[in-house]
Amino acid sequence: MHLTSNDITIFIFSISVMLFCARLFGEVFRKLHQPVVIGEIIAGIFLGPSFFGLLFPELYSSIFNSSPIVEITLQGIVELAIVMLMLVTGLEVDLSIVFSQGKKASLISFFSIAFPMLIGFGFSYLFPQFFGDISEEKKLFFALFIGTALSVTALPVVVRMLMDLNIFKTEIGTIIITAAMFTDIFGWIFFSFILGSIGSSNSQHSIQNQIVTILIFILVLLFIGRKVFNSIIKFLERFTISIGGVISFIFIIGFLGAAFTQYIGLHAILGAFLVGIALGDSVHIKEETREIVQQFATNIFAPLFFVSIGLRLNFIQNFDLKIILILLALSIFGKVLGSLFGSYLSGIKTNDSFIIGFGMNAYGAMQIVLSLVAKQVGLINDRIFVSLVVLAITTSILSAPVMSFFIKRAKRKLNFIDLLNKDLIFFSDAKTKNEIIEELCKKVSSKTKLNYNLVLENVMERENQMSTGLANHLAVPHAKLKINSIVIAVAINKDGIDFDSLDGRKTHVIILLLTPIDQPEAQLKLLSDIAKFFNSPDIAQKLISVSSKEEVIVSLEQISKNKFA
Amino acid sequence: MIFKRLALAISFSPNSKNLLLEAIRLKKLFGAKLFLIHIGEDSIENKNKMSQLISECSLSDEDYELNWRKGDVEDLIMDFCTEKQIDLLIAGALIKENVFKYYIGSVARKLMREAPCSVLLLTKGKDINKSFKKICVSVDFSQLSENAVKIAYEFAKLEESENLTLVREFQLPGLSSTIYEEENKEDLQKQKHDLLDEEKEKMKIFIKELNLNDVNVNYECLYGKQGWEASNWVAENHFDLFVISTPQRRPKLIDRIFQHDFEFVFKELPSSLLIVKTELQ
User: Fold this and answer.
1) How far is B28 from chain A (nearest CA, A)?
2) Which pTM was predicted?
3) For range B191-200, the mean pLDDT
């Protein structure tokens, strides 16, 4: 049996059609500020029996079902694509971050896994009838799978969201990333045990043998493989001319790991993912190398995988709103409740807990790959698979806006304009620096629960070290206090005050900045932003020309829009 | 006075004389009191060795307090530091331990991780009786690192160092995975550059806020793995002293297996190392 000339033509043509549609839909979704992956999955649904195959069955068959050998070849390419996708996903999991996590991130990581897993497992074990016809012998593994599927998080989607929402470098951002990495490692290892247990019932290996083999594989990779890979990569970086040597090594070892886990009765992707983690820990892999590997795997191979999901499956026939809603409810309930509980124990505030909970509730490609493997081994049927794909898409789209809502409520954005409060803006006739600082502290004290003397003492202590008068008619007296959130008060002084400013000009705009003592970066970031914002004397001049605090806010927002448009 | 009570652990190794000379120099520099401790038998042979060492270094009796203890080396040194309220413990250290010692922990490595006070580890490359001319301090903007910068600054002033460099490492984990979602590679590069600029701005303000005017202060922002990047950078740029703050939680064996942050520094010292221990307010 071999590929005929016609088979090769159709095979290559079908690949190009898949890539074209993936790119087209991906770009549309990118323009809509949605994950590209979702566009690619929808491209597959469009090309498959749900739409294109339904309208043009003959044309669909001649491209994608022309002969069994072409189908098998395509399947092989898709398998390779998943292995590559998981390898690069593993590469991005940073073990040093996972192991350096503090108590807060550890608690949140633990409960972000434990709650969805328990809730997913408990519900599907007790009420399997909601998911259709689940046989008694499959019930336990099915319930374990649902629990696992609801506990993973898609790192690329999470990273993207944190970047877009401008909270990547905050404490919350770090906690979310750490917890997402932790859930991925734990989720996949746990899933490998489920697969091992299922595999043992279909093969001559006993369940104990399977689990011991998996454990040895993981331990060897993490304790020995990691160190060996690091030394080899160091050698390759030093003695090979280009980064090609390292890239080849990454794929060779990744494929070997994948082949091994497939051989021992698990799925190839598990080996790829675990090898990816072990390789990614190397301090000698350059950032450029990581990016090239990512681009290679995600621009060519990953789209083929995502398109293939919808290509052979009728999403419309298998669409089951009831299962989708149940899974969505379980996921939100599990992830958000888990994060809330972990956050509560860590002393994190409620709004921040919701940010973390919804941040962790983006399943993306991780859940899709997990579900595909479960479908391949017969754990779930097409209906549940489709529901999980829809859940992955929905959560990836919904998480960012929900997080954004709580970020605004929690005043987590480190943006000067977003932190302004109308009640803390006023016009002053103060004549001296001390007078205006006292007025600002009084204003803050009257509108918040902060003690006037404490605020004044800290602000003056800083002021006495060195004047906070900057250039362009601006002064930013500031202090770090034991407070929960950032406080900004603005005073406009039309006559101007002598504030020992850098350019010797009179100060018209005085911004009091109070930041939590445990967020030292917040003070630096805001001081830098405010100084950049007032980079011309015209801005302060404009503010003294307005007559109400509402107008002050409108003017500042307008200036901000013009500056950062 | 940044350090008032110095202690030196003497082991009669070939490097002991150099270490004692350096401790005497620092004692004079800080105007501090010097405590010497030897863990071992106070036998006649050892007492003779100690006397010879002290006389070779021209140390008069009123300049030091000598202590002998018997038992577990690291624990006794640490107990001694607590008992005598030592604020800087001086010890010699190899740049790199062998693999076994690294994981099990040599005396110097244990002191780095667990000492109750600040620790100065002098590597063999340190020129005795010469001041630290190039000092680098790691900054993460936390209160502990702010304290470390203040001490490094005072130290650099006393030493009349050529420069004090503040180094800041930062990384956005998982960033490469978003390359797929970007319009092009340039977007990702731009984001990194923007972040770098933001870090530089913060660093400038950080330096300004600390009012570090009496020493030539530079700064450097590095993108990469925390601990690893700075350590390499310090070694490549031949600094005499690298200053870090004590890790917030006591490192365990697992931290050595899955290295992170300062464990990269401890594994292979990039230069002499000052670990500053201060209390949070």
Assistant:
1) 30
2) 0.82
3) 84
Q: What is the CA radius of gyration of chain A?
A: 28
- Quick one: pLDDT at residue B265? 83
Residues of B near A (Cβ–Cβ under 8 Å) read 141-143, 146, 170, 172-181, 183, 185, 188, 191, 195, 198, 201-202, 204-206, 208-209, 211, 223-226, 228, 248-249, 254-255, 257-261, 264, 281
Is A283:A230 a contact under the CB 8 Å cutoff?
A: yes
- Count of A–B CB contacts within 8 Å? 115
Domain A5-412 class?
A: mainly alpha
ipTM field? 0.82
**Helical packing angle, A268-280 and A207-219, nearest 10°:** 20
Q: Residue A476 and residue A529: Cα distance in Å, rounded?
A: 11
What is the domain partition of chain A in residue ranges?
5-412, 422-564
Quickly name the fold that domain A422-564 has: Mannitol-specific EII; Chain A (3.40.930)
Nearest chain A residue (CA) to B174: A92
Q: Which long-range contacts (CB under 8 A, 24 or more apart) does A519-523 make?
A: A519/A170, A519/A171, A519/A486, A520/A480, A520/B141, A520/B142, A520/B143, A520/B146, A521/A169, A521/B141, A521/B202, A522/A414, A522/A486, A523/A478, A523/A480
Say how far apart CA B199 and CA A561 lie, in whole Å.
Answer: 23
Instruction: Give me the residue from B141, B173, B176 closest to A524, CB to CB.
Output: B141
Run of H or E including A167: none
Amino acid at B194: D
The yes-or-no verdict on residue B248 having pLDDT over 90 is: no
Mark yes or no for CB contact A100/B260 under 8 Å. yes
Distance CA B116, CA B255 (A): 19
